[in-house]
Write a structure and sequence with these properties.
This protein has 357 residues and is mainly alpha-helical. Helix content is 82%, strand content 0%. It folds into two domains: 146 residues, no CATH class; 158 residues.
Length: 357
């Protein structure tokens, strides 16, 4: 039996370990999206990677390098598309912000005059536009952070793939749970990461393409840009696409394009909105059986904690609460609670069954 001094040393070592972990997390927090992104891509890639290594006898370095190039192209494509569509607008705004602000103020004044009530006051509008003017340069400066996280993600992913088996054995050895619970934790992680990392982007791409088709049919100017923005905001469940098409419809009504505005409104409500609903209850349920409430709460929590990658790990974090509770019950409670056998009351036995209320 461990002595008191052994217990003290054990607690002291665990406290030092915990402090070191917290210090590392604090300093690496800015790179957390890259680290979580590497973990996501590893979970998505491990089966195919191990198949190449152990069945087709590929070299580990060559196979890992092939996955890095694949993900670099896959992630680089939407970034290139965003730069191509949005960068000219930002450059135009930065070249003459006063002219763009005046146009926005005039358009909003026209809309408010057409609909007959004030959506936003002049003072609030000026404050919001000034904040936007100050925010855009900081958004451009965050590009360096994005590129750094992308580089870290691919760098860490390469070594996670090369040392995948050893890493998984080590984690299995140090996890203080029964093997059944370790398997359950790993299974839930893989299921939810696959559902969110594959399902949510796929839903967003589908909605963006469907919305872009509607904007093209109803003669929306720069329909490709509006379709791209709709796809981006489709990452957010329930009200995501409405952030894009509702202001667009209001603007089209205000400038007198009534027919096309009505078409966009009906198309967005009937087709774009239902595509989101059908895709979420089919794709996400098929891929991971993710409840919509978990998705919504997870997105809210994840974006605040982890940034954009929180769209994947937010729902996982919410689901972990239930999984860890089940594991706790299995580890410490279930085996210790005696199974109770209900006995019928004497009056129930006489009447042949339990009393009815």
């Amino acid at each position: 039996m461990p002595t008191f001094n052994d217990r003290i040393r054990q607690v002291l070592i665990l406290c030092i370990l915990l402090l070191l972990i917290l210090a590392v997390i604090r300093e690496l927090y800015i790179f957390m999206p890259g680290l979580l992104g590497a973990l996501t891509l590893y979970i998505l890639s491990r089966n195919n990677y191990f198949r190449l290594i152990y069945q087709r006898k590929w070299r580990k370095g060559w196979a890992a390098g092939m996955f890095i190039i694949y993900y670099l192209l896959l992630i680089g494509l939407p970034i290139f598309l965003a730069i191509t569509l949005i960068s000219p607008k930002i450059n135009t705004f930065l070249a003459n912000p006063t002219d763009m602000i005046d146009k926005a103020r005039t358009s909003l004044t026209t809309i408010q005059h057409k609909i007959g009530f004030t959506i936003i006051s002049e003072e609030s509008l000026s404050t919001g536009l000034n904040k936007l003017t100050n925010y855009i340069p900081s958004l451009l400066n965050s590009t360096a952070n994005l590129v750094t996280n992308l580089a870290i993600m691919l760098f860490v992913l390469y070594f996670m793939l090369r040392n995948g088996r050893e890493l998984e054995r080590y984690l299995n050895r140090i996890t203080p749970l029964k093997q059944d619970n370790i398997n359950k934790l790993a299974s839930e992680t893989k299921k939810l990461v696959r559902a969110n990392a594959l399902g949510i982007p796929l839903i967003s791409i589908i909605q963006g393409l469907i919305a872009a088709l509607g904007y093209f049919i109803f003669n929306v100017n720069e329909w490709g840009l509006w379709g791209f923005l709709t796809g981006v905001f489709a990452f957010f469940p329930v009200v995501g696409t409405m952030v894009v098409w509702v202001p667009l419809v209001i603007y089209m009504y205000a400038v007198g394009d009534t027919g096309n505005a009505t078409g966009v409104l009906l198309y967005s409500v009937v087709i774009t909105g239902n595509v989101d609903y059908v895709a979420r209850i089919t794709l996400l349920k098929r891929m991971g059986d993710v409840h919509p409430v978990i998705t919504i709460l997870g997105v809210i929590v994840g974006l605040g904690l982890f940034g954009f990658i929180g769209l994947v790990f937010g729902p996982l974090l919410i689901n972990y609460i239930m999984v860890v509770f089940d594991i706790y019950m299995n580890e410490f409670v279930t085996d210790k609670v005696p199974h109770l056998v209900e006995e019928a009351a004497p009056e129930d036995k006489k009447e042949g069954g339990p009393a009815k209320l």
